[in-house]
UniProtKB/TrEMBL annotation:
Keyword Coiled coil listed: no
Keyword Membrane: yes
Pfam families documented for this protein: DUF3267
Name of the protein this chain belongs to: Zincin peptidase
UniProt keywords, alphabetically: Membrane, Transmembrane, Transmembrane helix
Membrane spanning stretches: 24-48, 69-98, 118-145, 157-178
Phylogenetic placement of the source organism: Bacteria, Bacillati, Chloroflexota, Anaerolineae, Anaerolineales
Coiled coil: none
Amino acid sequence: MRAYSELPPDYVERGEFNLENSRLLMAMNLIGLVLLVGAGWLFAVLFTRLRPHTGEFILIFRSETPWQVLSTLLTFLVLLVLMIVLHEGLHGLAFWLFTRSRPQFTFKGWYASASAPGWYFTLPAYAIIGLLPLFGISLLGLALAPLLPESWIVPTWALLTMNAAGAIGDVMIVGWLFTLPRNALVQDFHTRTVAYVPQSARFGAER
């Protein structure tokens, strides 16, 4: 598992995974909605088992006054921002661990990304970079669940759920890596991941 600052001379471009592709983006949004429901259910079940003394896990939003409505919305807004910061921060940490150079962060509205455009990564290294936020945040949240104050259970559940749904792009990119030759290298450009392979594997001869 390595990162290279230069592309080997016999490597050529094989293809790319472009998150700006409109069809791909639409598919990701639809799959993300399904994942949001599935992740919410899974984390609810896990929290119930980790905190059996709290009884059945029930999520009820009671908004009896305008202030309570605003408070609920603000809580989830803060959680969303926190999730984005943690998620991209872990991507950045993984990039740094492999390159020992400062990653680049981009924030455009609700979209954020970490990247290392000047580096080329082996497939195992890039898979770790891609999946670290999903597994790191999920496992940390579940590990802390038995220790959290009662009032933190639902916010933590919401953060883990949003993080899992927001990782749909990472999961799809890692899935795409399995279609590449084992000796491929990939380069990250925020919304584009470009794959390079040796000239002999240009047309898929080497797996």
